[in-house]
Write a structure and sequence with these properties.
Blueprint (H helix, E strand, L loop, with lengths): L1 H16 L12 E12 L2 E9 L17 E8 L2 H7 L7 E3 L5 E5 H6 L2 H9 L8 E5 L4 H5 L9 H15 L8 H9 L6 E9 L17 E12 L2 E6 L1 H10 L6 E6 L5 E17 L5 E17 L7 H30 L6 H8 L1 H7 L3 H5 L3 E12 L7 H7 L1
Parallel strand pairs: 1-4, 1-5, 5-6, 6-7, 12-13
Antiparallel strand pairs: 1-2, 2-3, 7-8, 8-9, 10-11, 11-12
Helix pairs in contact: 8-9, 10-11
Length: about 400
C-alpha cells in the first residue's frame, strides 16, 4: 500500500514538471524543403527551395488543376537567411529545412567561394549535416532544381538516389555530405571535394511533365565527376578516370568496372569487388617526404574478348600483372594531373604527413599547397582475381573447336 501511494505521488510530481509538446509544429503549417540551391545575384544571393507538395507527392500525373509533386520557390537577398525569409512572401507555409536532402551550388557562386553558405548551414539549428552537397557544372543551381525527373516523384530524391547509386556502383563521382566538407575545410593538409552535377539534353521543357512523357526524357540530370576545391573555392573539375583515382586513394570505392589489354591484343573486362588503400611516407636524403599509395584490390572477370587460356594459372597471373600495371600508371598520372593543374591536395597527403611525421609537417604546414605540386607520389597496387566465371574458355575459342 505504501509503495502504491509513493508511486502516485511521483506521478503527480512528474505531471507538474513535464512540459509536453510545447515546441510542436503542425505539418499543415509547414512547407517541407527537399532541396536548396544557391546562386550569385547582383543583390547578393539567389536562393531556390524545392518544396514538396503533399497533396500530389504520390503521383506524377498531376492534379486536375495541373499541380506537380514539388514547387520551387525563388528569392534574392544580401544573405541566404534574408532570401529564405523573403521567400515567405510567396509561400503559403513556413519553410521547414530539417528534411533537406541535397544542396546545389551554382558554378559561378562556387568559384567565388561557398564560405558564407557553409557559415549559415552550420549555424542553423534546423538543418542537419548529413545531406549531400553538389556543384552545378556550367550552370546555375536553380536550373538543376527545375528539372522534373523520371522514377522519383520528387526531383530532390532522384538527385540523392543517383549520387548513392553512381558512387557505389561506378565510383566516378563524389559523395560528400555537409559534415565531410566542413571537416576537410577546417583540417590542415587537405582540401575538400564535392559531387558534380550537370544538365543533359533539351532543357526547354525541363520543368514540365512533358519532359518525361517520352521514352527518352528530353532533359536529364547527369552526375559530372568531382569538383575540386581549394579551401572554399571551386577551382576545376575532374573527369571519370581522375575521379576514380581520388576515390581509390580516399577508400571510397565499393565496386566499379574496367578493362585491361590481353597479351594477344584482345581485352578482358573486370569488376572490382573490394579495394583498400593506405599511404606510406618515406623521407629521402634531402629530408623531403615521398608518398607511396598502396592499393590492394580484388576483382572478378566479367568478359573476355581474347583467346587467352584461363585454365592456366599463368594466364590469370598475367592478367593480374597487367591490371596492376594499369592501376600503377593511370593513378600516378591522374595524381600528377591534380598536382600540376590544381595544386590542391584533395587526397589528404598533407594530413597523412602530419599524422606520420608531425615534426616534419611543421616546416611544410604554411606552404603545403605549393609543396604539394612537387612532392613525389607513386602507386603500388596488388590485384587478385577471385572469380573468372562459370565458363573457363572464351566463347570464340570454343566455337573454333566445333
Amino acid at each position: 500500500m505504501h509503495t502504491k501511494s509513493l508511486g502516485c505521488i511521483l506521478l503527480l510530481i512528474s505531471l507538474t514538471v513535464l512540459s509536453g509538446c510545447w515546441s510542436r509544429r503542425e505539418l499543415n503549417d509547414l512547407a517541407i524543403v527537399m532541396a536548396l540551391g544557391v546562386d550569385l545575384d547582383k543583390d547578393g544571393y539567389a536562393v531556390s527551395a524545392q518544396v514538396m507538395n503533399p497533396s500530389q507527392a504520390g503521383s506524377l500525373s498531376g492534379a486536375s488543376n495541373g499541380s506537380l509533386p514539388v514547387v520551387t520557390y525563388k528569392a534574392t537577398g544580401r544573405t541566404i537567411p534574408e532570401a529564405l525569409q523573403r521567400m515567405l512572401s510567396t509561400t503559403p507555409r513556413n519553410l521547414y529545412l530539417a528534411h533537406v536532402r541535397v544542396l546545389v551550388f551554382g558554378e559561378a557562386y562556387a568559384r567565388q567561394g561557398v564560405g558564407d553558405a557553409i557559415d549559415f548551414l552550420t549555424r542553423s539549428h534546423e538543418l542537419r549535416t548529413d545531406f549531400f552537397l553538389l556543384a552545378a557544372k556550367h550552370t546555375d543551381a536553380s536550373k538543376i532544381l527545375d528539372v522534373i525527373t523520371p522514377f522519383e516523384q520528387i526531383p530532390a530524391n532522384s538527385l540523392y538516389s543517383s549520387i548513392l547509386v553512381s558512387h557505389k556502383n561506378w565510383a566516378g563521382t563524389g559523395k560528400v555530405t555537409l559534415q565531410q566538407f566542413i571537416v576537410e575545410l577546417e583540417r590542415g593538409g587537405s582540401n575538400p571535394i564535392m559531387s558534380g552535377v550537370q544538365l543533359q539534353g533539351d532543357t526547354s521543357e525541363q520543368g514540365t511533365l512533358k519532359n518525361i512523357q517520352n521514352v527518352i526524357p528530353k532533359s536529364l540530370i547527369k552526375q559530372a565527376g568531382i569538383a575540386v576545391f581549394k579551401k572554399d573555392k571551386l577551382i576545376g573539375w575532374l573527369g571519370e578516370a581522375p575521379s576514380k583515382t581520388v576515390n581509390y586513394v580516399l577508400n571510397e570505392v565499393d565496386t566499379t568496372e574496367g578493362s585491361v589489354e590481353c597479351p594477344d591484343g584482345g581485352f578482358a573486362g573486370f569488376i572490382i569487388t573490394d579495394a583498400r588503400s593506405r599511404i606510406r611516407i618515406a623521407i629521402n636524403e634531402r629530408d623531403e617526404p615521398e608518398f607511396v599509395i598502396h592499393l590492394k584490390a580484388e576483382a572478378n572477370l566479367t568478359t573476355l574478348h581474347s583467346r587467352l587460356d584461363l585454365s592456366q594459372t599463368a594466364s590469370i597471373k598475367e592478367l593480374e600483372q597487367r591490371m596492376e600495371e594499369k592501376f600503377d600508371n593511370l593513378m600516378a598520372d591522374n595524381i600528377r594531373l591534380v598536382q600540376e593543374k590544381y595544386d590542391s591536395d584533395i587526397f589528404g597527403l598533407g594530413e597523412e604527413l602530419h599524422r606520420q611525421y608531425p615534426k616534419l609537417w611543421r616546416s611544410y604546414r604554411k606552404h603545403w599547397d605549393e609543396s604539394f605540386q612537387s612532392v613525389r607520389v607513386s602507386v603500388k597496387s596488388d590485384v587478385t582475381i577471385r572469380r573468372i566465371g562459370s565458363v573457363v574458355q572464351p566463347q570464340q575459342k570454343e566455337m573454333e573447336r566445333k
